[in-house]
Amino acid sequence: MHLLPPVTLYPSISISSMFKFFTTLFILWSFDSSSLLSSALPNSPTLGSRSILRAIKRGADRPSLVVDLNITNFDAVLKETPAAYAIIEFFAHWCPACRNYKPQYEKVARLFNGANAIHPGIILMTRLDCAHKENTKLCRAFSVHYFPVLLWGPPAKLIAGRYDGKKVKSEIKLVEDWESSKLLLNWINTQLKSSYELEDEKFEHDELLQSNVSDSGQVARAIYDVEESTTIAFDIILEHKILVLPL
Which intervals hold domain Thioredoxin (predicted)? Predict the structure, then answer.
């Protein structure tokens, strides 16, 4: 086995020089472990169990992406949407089955609704609370007699038409397989001849990549700091012969 020659340490180095040397090394280490992490994850919470729990709690309090309809905004929301289709979940807030189904519906809405939708402009996911007295007439017009009921159709047809459950050729359809997010998405894929999945994400987390490259000045300053710190460290090593490998 080939062994390296022993390293000789020279003790005749001032304390201030050693301090500068280790400070410089610390700068390099700090840049690697902190600066890069902060630039890659600019909005990440401070590491630690309490911070992680706070982050989870904030995630749990995230507002719903499903659009709430009522007798007042029903026509306007459906008229203004750019989506080609809409789904309306007719529910009652007191209904246990509706409460249990809410997270399943939200999972699908994440794909199509909101500013960060994975597949925007295709389907508008909405819901209408039939337990509110002002919405009763609208729910009856769509022949809703139990909860939840999901109807599918082009927004214009949902505005102009009504569903009585007997129109065979109606463009408004009853969603028959809805009991879970997977079943609902499979039903949607059948209608659209698509292949969407619940695990779909934006390509390579493009928002994170954009945040990393948006500030070219910050990147240039970081590179300069590394080069300067490296130069200082080697100047100290060469000047004071801190490490010498005998020939």
Answer: 56-193
Say if residues 219 and 31 touch (Cβ distance below 8 Å): no
pLDDT confidence of residue 32: 46
Average pLDDT over residues 98-105: 97
Please report the pLDDT score of residue 111 as a whole number.
97
Give the chain's end-to-end CA distance (angstroms, integer).
19
Which runs of E-coded beta strand occur in 71-190? Answer: 85-91, 123-129, 149-153, 173-174
pLDDT at 140: 93
Helix (H, G, I), strand (E, B) or coil at 228: helix
What is d(CA 213, CA 130) in angstroms, rounded to the nearest whole number?
48
Contact at 8 Å (CB) between 6 and 240? no
**DSSP code of residue 203:** G
Residue 34: pLDDT over 90:
no
Residue 48, sorted as left (phi over 0), alpha (psi -120 to 50) or beta, turns out to be left
Candidates 159, 140, 160, 161; CA nearest to 149 is 140
Torsion on CA atoms 97, 163, 70, 175, rounded to nearest 10: 40
Token pair of 71, please? 């007798």
Predicted TM-score (pTM) of this structure: 0.59
Q: How far is CA 18 from CA 13, 14, 27, in A?
A: 7, 6, 14
Active-site residue set: 95, 98
CB 98: neighbour CB atoms within 10 A?
20
